[in-house]
Amino acid sequence: MDDGAVQRIGAGALGARPLRYYDFFMAAFVAILLLSNLIGAAKLSTLGGVTFGAGILFFPLGYVLGDVLTEVYGYARARRCVWAGFAAMLFMALMSWVVVALPPAQGWPDQAAYEAVFGSTWRIVFASLIAFWAGELANSFVLARMKLHTQGRHLWMRTIGSTIVGQGVDSLLFYPLAFYGDWTNAQVATVMVTNWAMKVGWEAILTPVTYAVVGFVKRREGLDIYDEGTNFTPFRASISQG
Fold first, then answer.
1. For a 10 Å CB count at each end of the chain, is N or C smaller?
2. Strand extents, DSSP E, 14-121
């Protein structure tokens, strides 16, 4: 199909058709997920009197990519990326635990700093994994269903609406699972709402970028996927629709 000609098709009709950019989007999605958790999660920053985890500046890019994946390639392929990200995070957690637990060489002075940056409790790791998995799948589900309901119109409403739900699920799971009992109820609620609002705000700000990327990729792929007849179960990584 010539570049610029976009064909509306059901997700089930895509089959094994070659896709130009899907693999790149999957790789970018997993990379941003890992790096935002590995590099940004351990640092607190304050700007304009607001304190936040530094990773929040980049983690929402994963939601933008998730929106692009669902909008362009359909729910099943976005779900496959979520499972790939889940597996990558699980391996990252295991590798971090092994490397931190290894006894340092005599004379190596940085063990304490290494533990501060890369050491996480299994409670936080578990909360992060569950919240990511549920939040991303909720985001993709809402976006795909809204696309069917609106017949592909109002992309801005679909991306922001799905992020409100997806990040809401993520925050509602992560902060109580990770910090309930260690923080006061007020602290948990305050950080949960603040971070949810910041992430949704980022999604709104990045809406023009989402529009540009979605339009470009649809034209290059020549496809506009609608999840008609898709099996929306979260408990599979297959790209088949049945």
1. C
2. 44-47, 50-53
